[in-house]
Amino acid sequence: MATVGEIKVTRTTASRLSEVDFDNIAFGRVFSDHMLVADYRDGAWQSPEIVPYGAFQLTPATTTLHYGQSIFEGMKAYRNADGKPVLFRPRENFERMNRSAERMVMPAIPESLFLDGLKELVRIDVDWIPTQEDSSLYIRPLMFANDDFIGVQPSGAYKFVIFTCPVGNYYSEPVKLWVTREFIRAAPGGTGEAKTAGNYAASYYAAEEAKENGYHNVLWLDGNEHRYVEECGTMNVFFIIDGVAVTPELSGTILRGVTRDSVIKLLDDMDIEVQARRVSIEEVQKAYDTGKLDEVFGAGTAATVSPVIEIGSHEGVMRLRPDEERTVGPALLKRLTDIRHGVAEDKFGWVVPV
Ligand SMILES: Cc1ncc(COP(=O)(O)O)c(C=O)c1O
């Protein structure tokens, strides 16, 4: 057993690396050799450990299983052009995780635990970062309530975990989104902005309806009027309307996407006007009807910049031009990819060496 800073490291004696077919990785099903684990109890974080990836022992009374006090993050490590491992804007994820923690009445995670722990974990499993184009190492920080207690109140104990998985593209084809006027993902005053488990569980019912209608996912509308576009279940959305990029504003009900923020800064840098504001589905329909809806795309860590090819609802279908005929989305994806891999200048200081 070696100690790295304050992190105790126990390496696996049975690496699974050689079993992985990096040319055919299913998203989120293959996990790297190690994970970082830290417990919070008696009002303090205990020393973190890096251990072989594996199961936890939980009792049926574990509070998170009942009341869903659980938050997570999603980010990626890449190899740059020199083969060195880098992270993309990890501080943004750290800060968002602590905002989620505050909203869900969970303890703040110290910066050293999150950022140093993350870097150490990626260094140890560096060989798990794929070299294939469009591939990366997805990083999943997670914190869940870990008290043995049945009662509706915040837990006194928590477990913080970081584990990683090599991934390819989340969507293997252009995305089709389904608009529902019946169900909502989040409402003002709720937990929409927190990256918490319940937001996702609550979205599955409508997502099933989307799938039954032949769509990949839901394009959510606001909780009050069921009119204004919010986001998709896995990514923030952008509409290019008559050359202007329009994206729903951060109203507290949508996730503050790191990719959304990067895309806004890149659009600005490309001299494309960006409007972060309310955008109704009627406005999108009108732009489509008048031939002004140039492009729609989603932005997210897992999804990167994904072209939306179709928006459907009980009211009709909007069919959008294919990726080959688009200019903005593909240009953004290329710039983001080039910055992440160190091919283009990182003028915003987004790339952090591991
Ligand atoms: C609901 C939701 N919206 C948006 C995003 C995109 O956020 P980010 O760009 O930080 O990955 C995600 C992905 O994490 C998400 O789950």
Protein model, in words:
It is a single chain. The protein has helices spanning 63-67, 90-103, 111-124, 197-201, 204-212, 258-269, 281-289, 328-340; strands spanning 2-4, 7-9, 34-41, 44-45, 49-52, 70-72, 75-79, 85-88, 136-145, 158-167, 175-179, 217-221, 229-232, 236-241, 244-247, 274-276, 293-300, 304-313, 316-319, 351-353. It is α+β, with helices and mostly antiparallel strands. The chain has two domains: 2-167, D-amino Acid Aminotransferase, Chain A, domain 1; 175-340, D-amino Acid Aminotransferase, Chain A, domain 2 (Alpha-Beta Barrel). Helix 6 crosses helix 8 (328-340). The mean pLDDT is 96. Residues 74, 231, 233-236, 255, 257-260, 299-301 line the site of pyridoxal-5'-phosphate (PLP). Residues 74, 231, 233-236, 255, 257-260, 299-301 line the site of pyridoxal-5'-phosphate.
**CATH class (first level) name of the largest domain:** Alpha Beta
CATH level-3 fold name of the largest domain: D-amino Acid Aminotransferase, Chain A, domain 1
Number of helices: 8
Number of strands: 20
- Overall structural class, as computed from helix and strand content, comes to alpha+beta
CA-based gyration radius: 21 Å
The share of residues in extended strands comes to 25-35%
CATH superfamily of the largest domain: Aminotransferase class 4, branched-chain amino acid transferase, N-terminal domain
Biggest sheet architecture: 11 strands, mixed
